[in-house]
Amino acid sequence: MTPKKILVVFVLIIAAAALTIAAVSFLTPKKQSLTHLRIGYQPSTHQIAHMTAMEKGWWEEGLAKFGIEEVSDYEFPSGPPEMQAMLAGDLDIAYVGATPPITAIYEGLDAKIVAGVQIQGSHLALRLEINYTGPDDLRGLKIATFPPGSIQDTVLRKWLIDNGLDPENDLEIVAMGAGEAVSAITAGAVDGAFLPHPSPAVIELEGSGKMVVGSGEMWTNHTCCCLVVSGRLIKEYPDVVEQIIRIHINATEYNKSHPDEAAEIYARKVGWEVEKVQYSLNTWDGYWVSDPHIGMNVTLEYAQVIYDLNKPRYDRVLTEGELFDTSFYDNIIAKEA
Amino acid sequence: MTQLEPPLKSKTRSFLKKKGIIEIFSFIAVVGIWEFVAVFIVKNKFALPSFHSVVVSFFEFLSSGVMLMDILTSLLHLAIGLTAAVCIGIPIGAVTGWFRIADRIAYPIVEILRPIPPLAWIPFALIWLHLTHYAAGFIVFIGATFPILINTYAGFRNVPKVLVESAKVLGCTKDHDLVKAVAFPSALPFITTGIRIGTGVGWMCIVAAEYFGVSKSGLGYRLWIEGYWLHHMDNFLAYMITIGLVALVLDRFFRYFFEEKLLKWRKEIVA
Predict the structure, then answer these.
(1) H/E stretch holding B208
(2) What is the mean predicted confidence (pLDDT) over A30-41?
(3) B122-129 vs A178-187: helix crossing angle, rounded to 10
(4) Contact, B92 vs B182, CB < 8 A?
């Protein structure tokens, strides 16, 4: 290679570096006026509050006075990609399970849990031929659930240990997504699946299994979904955050008093038969909330579990102040009182 | 000082001309830029982990023995898928390449199945093969089969007419003999290229193949569980790089085996 060619190679490397830096600085979110609110959610009955607010136009209507002209929502199959999108600055708020934000905040995500969304709401479904009388009947079975660090994996393992079973040796827990788990139990590839609703209801309705234990029986009042807001919004647009929580509270209360309409809204959003959704809502043990204090202690327990799972990578357990900002919710309640 | 310049210049030039020097400098430059951008510009290990954190993560998994087990498990999945792909892709490619009627029969089926992403087959892998290594091998098989089949087909389609005519003149008239003595050796370079491409594509399917609980180890499994799901992007990148490195070793092995051993005779024909 001649010196001229060497020079060309190095110029190309420098140009690539300059492009990278330019791209990174371009992608880094800058302070700009907030006219477009971007909401992340998952197609779960846990998060109907967002769907109700979206369908009824409450987001746009309630936030218009703060200069927000457009509200978009983005569907995610699970929490991790939703949190990745939030980190990339593509989401302002997210309806998500409580553990993905904990791991994301551990890894540097600037966001806080500002409101509760729902408590409990998962079920262990077993194949029809298994006669379940108690946790001991799970010995030797293969149970599908979400991967380690998820709410379902954490709740299931804790319950097994509380009932004298070793999750590593007495049964096999296999990690997979909800869609794969439903296929796996249908195909007989696993003996059971512990999943958030509506998946257990789908398993039962399709005749592939039956729901045997609700997550509330495993861990009473365990937190499931929460509302996460980006640090940027909290710092730069506190009025908007307060209004977002107010809309969320209204939507939650509306769903609680109109469960049939909530089922219809969900059915329309995800393209399901409304009877299926109603069956899920009639059989689950979950309930919708907006108060972030309700699930706070359990969320802090999740943070401890995630810390234990990732030692020595994490040097401490995340504190309440690092995970939550309840001041907005408390202000709203105080004003209303 | 001016008297010293020419020898210094020529020394630098000859140093840079040494084999591997430019490559090493290029690698160091890329790593340096990566580290600089991660530490001083992005400053967020979630968005871009630094090079040194990826190296630390890589050696942690390597020293604990976890990575070796993951590599072996993934190679098992690749071996299952690739063996099936070779056993099915080569005969179908050969028959459709040699017999016009077979080509007409297989063409629509192959062309409908070929563009379907291996990921879409996951539910069927689960239903048909359950949570076994064969289910992961099936996804690899879907990815690897078509490059092997298409290349074999092209190899048999492109057998020089002069070779076939010469063989016939010399008494080799039956299809079986022509395929064995003329078409297959002629198509062999295409087939080996297909296997190399198929191996690469099959290896790319490993991440998807190990996502749905078929095993408790594997490069794809670890990438999801230890990297993606927990947002440990340094682990994620360490496993991404490992997947790339293993692919490189596999390709070098196949290249050596095919070019230096199986197709050694071609060296005198092709420069």
Answers:
(1) helix B206-209
(2) 84
(3) 30
(4) no
Name B164's Cβ contacts closer than 8 Å, sequence gap at least 6.
B178, B182, B183
> B90: which 2 tokens?
């080569």
pTM: 0.79
Q: CB-based contacts of B266: which residues, under 8 Å, 6+ apart?
A: B189, B259
Rounded Cα gap, residues A38 and A94, in angstroms? 9
Q: Is A147 exposed, middle or buried (0-12, 13-18, 19+ CB in 10 A)?
A: buried
B231 interfaces chain A, CB cutoff of 8 Å: yes
Residue A147 is classified by DSSP as P
Rounded CA separation B137/B139 (Å): 5
CB contact under 8 A, B33 and A188: no
Nearest CA in chain B to A148: B225
8-state DSSP, A324: B
Q: What is the mean pLDDT of residues A151-176?
A: 93
Residue A6 to residue B47, Cβ atoms within 8 A? no
Residue B49 near residue B105 (C-beta atoms within 8 A): no
Letter for the amino acid at B224?
W
- Output the six-digit token pair for A190: 């696993």
Candidates B161, B216, B206, B208; CA nearest to B183 is: B161
Give, rounded to a whole angstrom, the gap between the first and last alpha carbons of chain B: 47
3 state DSSP class of A242:
helix
ipTM of the complex: 0.71
